[in-house]
Amino acid sequence: MSEHHKTFAAVDLGASSGRVMVGRVGAGTLDLTEAHRFPNRPVRVPEGLRWDILSLYAGVLDGLRAAGRVDSVGIDSWAVDYGLLDADGALLGNPVHYRDARTEGVAEQVWATVPAAELYAATGLQYAPFNTLYQLTAARATPQLARAERLLLIPDLLAYWLTGEAGTELTNASTTQLIDPRTGEWAYGLAERLGIDLGLFAPLRRPGDPAGLLTPRVLEETGLTGPVPVTTVGSHDTASAVAAVPAAGERFAYICTGTWSLAGLELAAPVLTEASRAANFTNELGLDGTVRYLRNIMGLWLLQECLREWDHPDLGALLRAAAEIPPLRSVVDAGDAVFLAPGRMPARIADACRASGQPVPGSRAEITRCILDSLALAHRRAVDDARRLADHPVDVVHIVGGGTRNELLCQLTADACGLPVVAGPAEAAALGNVLVQARAHGLVGDRTAMRRLLARTQPLRRYEPRGDPAAWRAAQDRIAGP
Q1: Spatial separation of the C-alpha atoms in residues 59 and 304, rounded to whole Å
Q2: How many CA atoms lie within 13 A of 53 on its CB side?
Q3: Averaged pLDDT for residues 137-147
Q4: Residue 151 three-state SS
Q5: Which string of DSSP letters, residue by residue, matches 241-291?
Q6: Of 247, 274, 242, 87, nearest to 171 (Cα)?
Q7: Are 375 and 335 in contact (CB under 8 A)?
Q8: Going by fewer Cβ within 10 Å, which terminus of the chain is more open, N or C?
């Protein structure tokens, strides 16, 4: 491989699958191919819902073997969840899944010590019942936490197994509700008041920092020839995805679509107002000290759960049928926590429509159309609220991630927002992962240069808004806002 081209392995773990992607970067070139994809199947055991972390690690090793010679490895995954290690560095049980019920009612316990408004002013993080802060509070009396000497967020845990070196990557750490978004450092006073030992966390790392070398054992298992460095990337997959938004300028909103929809803005500083808290916006950290100012929306989880209950019918045919259903007949609040848990999703959507006095969708196509209209409406609310609360103009909405393949959702989002939508790239998290590695190795410049490279090399599709904006306003009036 020429000195002007390098190859990077991007380990990108989502809530339902993992993949190892191979990115090749050179002067004006960026190619991404899939080396290995593997399922991510959480397991319900008597004590609750757990991640099968050993299966995921095996998938990573298999993927690195399939990737072949690489110049670096980077890891990103979902946020908030963690593994606990004992004094010998051994894992103390499978990591708890963020959809586990253990955090029910825990937020109120935390707010009794630090009121919700004060907590937001200190950390800027939206309320979500699964934030790491609430998970640690729920785990306070457990033998595992009592024995723990180290806490590693999921991508940091995998990096530790690959290298033997422990660190805590900052963009993911910012989802714990224990980071001050103004300083990018731990909120020590807050943690002390809540009885959380920040000494459990390994030292902070930032995207681009070295994270160690693959150990001899890992080299042997993967067939790679060392030294192979692991490079810290935006290890929260949304941070990597936002880094791969192919925007020109700053007047854009983004929607990272997949199991979740993360909709918001890239800002230079957090928005910590009471109005922002009331609107449930979060201030997570991104590349180069930026702030990902966004709202979590339930996302394609709603459709994924319906497809699972329907025994996975042909999605293309279902979406074509949904496109023929009259628009905005019934909508639900896609941010409602009632949809968080798995199971019975079609019935829960029907119940929500019934409770709000709307027509109850009966067929699979009607339920699918209800979901997509509702997601587009939630996207509209998030973009409108973000630009108002941050006083930040928006001329275009970029949709990245798996939802870019859903043409109906992209068009409905353009219609709902009344703004052009640029869809792509689909593998945004993996591309952001690769580009941060490439930048650390001197092949790419700043964020602007990264985005120009993406715009030149990745397939993008533009959707212009159409239809009557008043219909979307009327649909919003039918459901409660956030």
Answers
A1: 22
A2: 24
A3: 95
A4: strand
A5: HHHT---SSS-EEEEEESSSEEEEEEESS----HHHHHTT-EEEE-GGG-E
A6: 242
A7: no
A8: N
Q: What's the pLDDT band for 3 if we cut at 50, 70, 90?
A: low
* Among candidate residues 272, 261, 269, 243, the one with its CA nearest the CA of residue 126: 272
**Tally of helices (H runs) and strands (E runs) in the chain:** 19, 21
Kindly indicate the confidence band of residue 16, based on its pLDDT and cuts at 50, 70 and 90: confident
- Mean pLDDT value across residues 367-373: 98
Q: Flag whether the pTM goes above 0.85.
A: yes
CA 84 – CA 478 distance, rounded (Å):
45
**Mean pLDDT calculated for residue range 178-189:** 97
Kindly report the length of the chain: 482
Residue 70 near residue 230, CB atoms below 8 Å: no
Ramachandran category for residue 172: left, alpha or beta (phi over 0 → left; psi -120 to 50 → alpha): alpha
Active-site annotation holds for 237:
yes
Spatial contact of 253 and 297, defined as CB atoms under 8 Å apart? no
Using CA atoms, how far apart are residues 109 and 71, in angstroms rounded to an integer? 47
The partner residues of 120 in beta bridges, in order of sequence, read: none
482 pLDDT tier (thresholds 50, 70, 90): very low
Q: What is the largest CA-CA distance in the chain?
A: 64
Q: Mean pLDDT throughout 241-254?
A: 97
Strands 72-76 and 6-13: parallel
Asked if 295 and 279 touch (Cβ cutoff 8 Å), the reply is yes
Cβ proximity of 285 and 239 under 8 Å: yes
Can you read off the two tokens belonging to residue 101? 């019920």
What confidence score (pLDDT) does residue 157 get? 98
- Spatial separation of the C-alpha atoms in residues 166 and 203, rounded to whole Å: 8
Higher-pLDDT residue of 258 and 414 is 414
User: CB under 8 Å to 311, separation ≥6 — which residues?
Assistant: none
The span from the CA of 215 to the CA of 159, in Å, is 11
- Candidates 295, 323, 347; CA nearest to 481 is 295
Cα distances (angstroms) measured from residue 130 to each of 97, 176, 208: 9, 9, 28
Six token digits for residue 389: 């609360």
CA dist 53 → 83, 148, 390, 403, 445 (Å): 9, 17, 38, 26, 35
Give tens-digit pLDDT for 148-173: 999 999 999 999 999 999 999 999 99
C-alpha 140/C-alpha 91 separation (Å) is: 18
Q: Is the peptide bond before 227 cis (omega within 30 degrees of 0)?
A: yes
